[in-house]
């Protein structure tokens, strides 16, 4: 499996080699995978933290990019990214209880940073539970946003952080190959089904 070299630069500490043999992470690309992400979030936020349904499923789940973390073939973690003009927003990080404190989180974040950087973003906004600032500040490169105080929702105190995204040497410009741009999210280096459809384009037989 190709490792997210650029994405790992966003982390405070490297991911051990053996971790990649156990864990993998990727963007959600099917309704089945979206249900996996929703199930993990329900277990963590609704069950453990008693978050109301309408606050957890907030109307943004069809507007962003979701990631899944797998321990072998089993989905064990998720997060969501939403996109704005000059920043991306990191949201809804959730790990099943047995995965907390393990290395899988770093795999999830590294793959997320790789995709965000490939899209050309250099910074992200995070809204984190205030009590978790020490954890996140040791996990990836970030800072508390100056001049921004705490705020509350779903019965928890939150703080805003700016997350630094490493620069990707192969960030995708608008002028990229059209077949690259229409490939599945995060799989821009692998020919997709629409690449093959080009063989049906008018004039291909004559060109051959």
From TrEMBL:
A GO molecular function held by the record: acyltransferase activity, transferring groups other than amino-acyl groups
Name of the protein in its database record: N-acetyltransferase domain-containing protein
InterPro entries: Acyl_CoA_acyltransferase, GNAT_dom
Domain N-acetyltransferase stretches: 23-179
